[in-house]
Amino acid sequence: METKNIMIVGVGGQGSLLASKLLGRLLLTKGYDIKVSEVHGMSQRGGSVVTYVRYGDKVYSPIIDKGQADFIVSFELLEAARWTEYLKPNGKIVTNTQQVNPMPVITGAASYPENLVQKMQEKGIDVDAFDALSLAEEAGSSKAANLVLMGRLSKGFDFTEEEWMQAISQSVPGKFLEMNQKAFRLGRES
Questions:
Q1: Where are the domains positioned within the chain?
Q2: Considering the entire predicted model, what is its pTM?
Q3: Buried b / exposed e along 44-77 (16+ C-beta atoms within 10 A)
Q4: What is the pLDDT along the chain (190 residues), one digit of tens a residue?
Q5: How many CA atoms lie within 13 Å of 179's alpha carbon, on the beta-carbon side?
Q6: C-beta of residue 51 within 8 angstroms of C-beta of residue 37
Q7: 187 close to 75: Cβ distance less than 8 angstroms
Q8: Edge-to-edge strands of the sheet including 69-74?
Q9: Domain spanning 4-189 has what CATH number?
Q10: Per-position DSSP letters for the chain, written without gaps between them
């Protein structure tokens, strides 16, 4: 099998590391060779965070180069736009429409870019943009947006919902399991 590449991008504290662990667990149970690489930015200050997940018959490197990502899962709209050059020509971006102001916007040195989804689509990029934050709040917590996004991403895979739920139960503490499963289902069904 050809190696598949998934980038999970966001801002520190949004749960991208849990999302990559969940995906990694699922792929391991399916027998794939997998490499996960977590690249932390200034996560404590709302900086960019990216995680690479690569899987296939044999994966030699954890790093995804420009033009190699089959999927980019983005927890925030500007982060989706920031990483587009890593997407394959036939790749797909799954993104939350939430906007988190970076430091230059907070300080007034810049403005948050407008019409990002439209601009990405005008470049020929397949963008699935939706309000994951509202679905997470419906599930019980805004912090569950990561599982909503994983639910939406799951539509691009041949794994059963039960297989995803098993990986969630292995990745999430018991007291948060029901809420995270609900968030996943809301993302998958939306």
A1: 4-189
A2: 0.93
A3: eebebbbbbbbbbeebeeeebeeebbbbbbbbbb
A4: 899 999 999 887 677 888 999 999 999 999 999 999 877 665 555 677 899 999 999 999 999 999 999 999 999 999 999 999 999 999 999 999 999 888 889 899 999 999 999 999 999 999 999 999 999 999 999 999 999 999 999 999 999 999 999 999 999 999 999 999 999 999 999 8
A5: 16
A6: yes
A7: no
A8: 33-40, 48-56, 4-11, 69-74, 87-96, 126-130
A9: 3.40.920.10
A10: ---EEEEEEEETTSSHHHHHHHHHHHHHHTT-EEEEEEEE-SGGGT-EEEEEEEEES----SPPPTT-EEEEEESSHHHHHHTGGGEEEEEEEEEE------HHHHTTSS-PPS-HHHHHHHTT-EEEEE-HHHHHHHHT-GGGHHHHHHHHHGGGS---HHHHHHHHHHHS-HHHHHHHHHHHHHHHH-
Q: Judge contact between 137 and 179, C-beta under 8 A.
A: no
Give pLDDT, residue 38: 76
Q: What is the pLDDT of residue 42?
A: 53
The span from the CA of 78 to the CA of 154, in Å, is 22
Beta-carbon contacts of residue 130 (< 8 Å; ≥ 6 apart) = 95, 96, 97, 152, 190
Distance between CA atoms of residues 146 and 43, nearest Å: 16
